[in-house]
Amino acid sequence: MRSRRITATLVTAIALAWLTTAPTARTSEEYYYGIEIGGRLCGYARVTAVPLRKDGHELIQLTHESVIRATLLGGPVDVRMTLTYRVDPEMKGFTEHASVIEQGPNRMASALRIEGSRALVAGQKPGEEDAVDLPPDVVLANTLRFPHLVADFVGTDTADKTYHVFDGRDNAVRDVTYTRKGSETLTLAGRSFKTVMFDSLDRRTGVAATVWIDEETGVVVQTRHPGQRLTYLAGPDIVDAVTDPVRMPDLSGTIMTPTNVTIRNVRDISYMKVRASMRPSGLLLTPDALNVPGQRFEGAVKDNAVEGVFEIGHRRYDGSQAPPFPPDFSHDPGLREYLASSELIQSDDPVLIAKAREITNGSPDAWEAARRLSAGVGNNIKGAIPGGGSARGTFDQRAGECGGHSFLMAAFARAVGIPARAVWGAMYTPRNGGEFGQHAWNEVYMGAAGWIPVDTTITETDYVDSGHIRVGVFQSLATVLNARSFEILEHRTER
After folding, report:
1. What is the distance between the alpha carbons of residues 59 and 91, in angstroms, rounded to a whole number?
2. 102: closest CA among 24, 170, 11, 26?
3. How far apart are CA 69 and CA 245, in angstroms?
4. 66 Ramachandran zone, left/alpha/beta (phi>0; psi -120 to 50)
């Protein structure tokens, strides 16, 4: 996966729209959008459509410049994203797409082009391209206009339809279902739009939204996501409202959810029973997926809406039957992805490999090696927002949020042959009298003992306390907890 995740919680809240009734118009157009999270304005988008001619074809170049400015847990959030699409009106999709995302000192870029039935994505090394096969009925969505929804729903009795949509951000084909909710007239930025309302659901990532499509143009004029995220058509004055430093909102409430009990000695939580309500995105959930070693779930999961009770009791691993070091798991295809390098977990980076080998040199077994790596990350990487983002960025800056810590730990472990993955969910903290916050940590594979959790961010370097509620393995930039409520029914501590 060639993702460009920096702050997925915020970036995935951005939905843009291109407003033009004449896709082949010879004039340029410019439109503005407001972005609210938790009812507070925190961002804007400026979208321009410029006609151009290339190789005898009339194309439209769409440029989306978006900004989110806020604070989060006391740290600044300044995300700037530029997306560029070249759209062929005849094929009703883009032929080229590039993106640049910047947050603080971090910069990530990607590019792809469509060639026949494949999307060719620029690789991590110059000159490399990864190919993604596209089905014949693929929708080359650019997140701006949705003519396929107009064709299938406006003036018809269609209730729902599933499309094969190519996601240019995750570079994968998704099954996305749109279900008609009704019709509504919206007045935005001084204009009136007759819209069709839909509930949409990504069948792989669980991303859900309600979208309002202009019947005439197929443009999305408003989008509402779980977690109180709203994007809507606005005027040019939205730019000054967002860039005014006095108005910068605190978005901590979007990832922190109050609960009913204060527990001071968090590290000693040995058992917790919690009633939870949330609608996570990032992977499609089932009740079985929430039942893992150290955690039991009883309740319902429908379209990723989770309602039920978690019982958590993570036991400390004593290292028994740990694999030798260095281990050899090459014979197990199920572990292959947890040993491979990726854009965020660069386990093939020479600098990270050398450091991982230095830390683990002389380890008697794989568990001791994992403990040394976990302590190395936990004791030497300070907490920071945004931090370094990826594993290498976190290592270079010696700073990162929980995602950066988890990516670096996974990269170190994989670099010396220990299968590792970043997992995510919610973690209890006594902050403000008791809260659960969106959080990431790690699991390392110890052969017969299975997957062992560790949390380098809070220096639980050889265990995790039982205030951790696991949702799943990180696999998408769409990862967001979207919690509604947590009620602690019971808990125990070791002391």
Report:
1. 10
2. 11
3. 9
4. beta
The owner of tokens 């409520």 is 485
Reading the block at residue 302, the tokens are 């429908």
CA atoms within 13 A on the CB side of 238: 26
Radius of gyration of the chain (CA): 23
pLDDT in tens, 280-326: 988 889 899 999 999 999 999 998 999 999 999 999 999 999 999 99
d(CA 142, CA 97): 9
Q: How far apart are CA 423 and CA 444, in angstroms?
A: 10
Beta bridge partners of 203: none
pLDDT at residue 303, rounded to an integer: 86
pLDDT digits (tens, 9 = 90+) for 24-75: 445 788 889 999 987 889 899 998 888 988 877 788 898 989 998 888 887 7
Helices (H) and strands (E) in the chain, counts: 7, 25
Q: Residue 112's closest CA among 64, 149, 167?
A: 167
Q: Rounded to the nearest 5 degrees, what angle is found at the Cα of 452, between the Cα atoms of 272 and 384? A: 80
The two structure tokens encoding residue 420: 């590792």
Quick one: average pLDDT of 380-406? 86
Q: Which two tokens stand for residue 50?
A: 């410029």
Model pTM above 0.85 = no
Alpha helices in 136-175 (DSSP H): 147-153
How confident is the model over 7-33, as pLDDT tens digits?
333 333 323 323 333 334 457 888 899
Name the nearest CA neighbour of 369 among 399, 398, 404, 326: 326
